[in-house]
Amino acid sequence: MSRRDHLGNEGHIFSATQEFSPFNVVAWHGNYVPYKYDLSKFCPINAVSFDHPDPSIFTVLTANSSIPGCAVADFVIFPPRWTVSQHTFRPPYYHRNSQNEFMGLIKGMYEAKQDNFLPGGASLHLCMTPHGPDTATFERAQQMDDSCSDQPGRISQETLAFMFETHMTPRTTAQALSSPCIDRDYYKCWASLRKHFDPAYEPLAKKQ
Ligand SMILES: [Fe+2]
Questions:
Q1: Is residue 106 situated within a structural domain?
Q2: Which InterPro entries does the UniProt entry name for this protein (predicted)?
Q3: 6 among annotated binding-site residues
């Protein structure tokens, strides 16, 4: 067994190697146990009409806080699935809230980003920061809404994204902020969004 560097945190990283796994046990004492879960077995409780139930239908694990409805942290995934909502915008909608959202892409393509969000990539939206689908995703969803909004859609079998959501504001390290991998043009994914609001448009009235 060897060990180097120091045990610091907040900007300091340590590494260690050993000849055995600490998870290789037949019993565990205490409230916390290592557990390996196959994310492909997770089943989101999907909407079949027009709304998105709360808490998130994609929550795999949650850590409750003393505040009802406000978890310390949620672990959420966005797995392959059918989307069958009617008369509504299918991709994750634009929003900002009190939660801090760190999400990443494990494989495939994330449904709300058409460009520059690759497997291994991650994004961090801190509390009250507006965010949502990029322009290409919005435009495609807008066309679907006009042409086939009642048709089922398929989120690719080859995709898997995840998110940690917490009301506690995470701190970014100096190493992260100075990383050459940061996409400093990220905000431009929304720069070309066009205004589509039409006060005379009444989709529900037309379809009834
Ligand atoms: Fe969000």
A1: yes
A2: HgmA_C, HgmA_N, Homogentis_dOase, RmlC-like_jellyroll, RmlC_Cupin_sf
A3: no
Residues in the chain: 208
The rounded Å distance from CA 104 to ligand 1 centre is: 12
Query: Rounded to the nearest whole angstrom, what is the distance from the C-alpha of residue 101 to the centroid of ligand 1?
Result: 6
Exposed (0-12), middle (13-18) or buried (19+): which is 152, by Cβ within 10 Å?
A: exposed
101 annotated to a ligand binding site: yes
- Tell how far the Cα of 132 is from the centroid of ligand 1, in angstroms: 7
Task: Give the pLDDT of residue 185.
Answer: 93
Residue 81 in any domain: the answer is yes
The total number of structural domains that make up the chain: 1
8 A C-beta contact, residue 117 and residue 108: no
Active site residue 87: no
Q: Is the dihedral of CA 173, 175, 176, 177 positive or negative?
A: positive
Q: What is the CATH number of the domain that holds 63?
A: 2.60.120.10
What pLDDT is attached to residue 208? 47
What is the C-alpha separation between 163 and 44, in angstroms, rounded? Answer: 14
What residue numbers bound the domain in which 75 lies?
Answer: 41-171
In order along the chain (208 residues), what is the average pLDDT of each group of 10 residues?
43 80 77 84 83 79 88 93 82 88 95 89 94 92 70 87 93 91 93 87 60
| 186 occurs within a structural domain | no
83: buried, middle or exposed (CB in 10 Å: 19+, 13-18, 0-12)?
Answer: middle
Q: In 75-193, which ranges are continuous DSSP H helix?
A: 135-148, 174-177
Known binding residue 131? Answer is yes
